[in-house]
Amino acid sequence: MNDEVKRKVIDQFGKNAEKYVTSETHAKGEDLPVIVEWLNPSKKAVALDIATGGGHAAKALSPFVSHLFATDLTKDMLSNTARHLKDTYKNISFVIADAEELPFLDGTFDVVTCRIAPHHFPNPNAFVREVARVLKPGGAFLMIDNVVPEDHQLAEFMNTMEQLRDTSHNRCLSVNEWRMLFSSSGLEELQSNLFKKTYTFPAWVERTTESEEQIRSVYDHILHANKDIQSYFQVKVEDDTVTSVSIDEWMVLCRKK
């Protein structure tokens, strides 16, 4: 099952590598400058950005650290990102790596980041354990990802919507689920922020779907949801079609004990 999920991730991101470099959702997030503000890294720090995708978090952080390793499971995605960044951001090394089995020694990094990716990981517990393993004692971990509400019906709706839109989506966890994983791996939460993130249709849907039928299934899922669900996710509809939807995103900073 895990291998199948990872094959879908490689396929999805390999085909859409350029879209993730240019995607406004990923490239222009208000969270990017906050990453540096929250981490406040030393210029001597060695950093790791897991599942770097289009490299946006790596690009934001690299001027403030001595060296940064940007990893991704998808070779084509990583190669495309390297082409965009390597001439300008010379302290970034690009490494093909599985977030759940990182090719680094224990206690290698002062800082680890992972932005808008963990919902693709089939085993979040293994991911968190690997983060804790490669961090130095006292090292900082900053994660940003979509999360589901604690309410089961709302959580089910959101994960189904994402799976219909993106076949490489595994599961968004709730904040409490993440906190349990952090605690069990010796990561202490320092600060966090839960906020709404609005996606504009149809660009968000078209980035990952492969057919009109798949696009229609996403719209139908949203339009057929009850009023409470549509209200929570701030669904906006014009002329019987969805124009935008808002989901929960969580930014959290932890320290390795």
From TrEMBL:
Keyword Magnesium: no
Keywords: Methyltransferase, Transferase
KW Methyltransferase (keyword) present: yes
GO biological process, one term: methylation
A single MF term (Gene Ontology): S-adenosylmethionine-dependent methyltransferase activity
Family: Belongs to the methyltransferase superfamily.
Organism: Alteribacter keqinensis
Pfam family, one: Methyltransf_11
SUPFAM superfamilies assigned to the protein according to its UniProt record, in alphabetical order: S-adenosyl-L-methionine-dependent methyltransferases
Protein name, as recorded: Class I SAM-dependent methyltransferase
Domain Methyltransferase type: 48-142
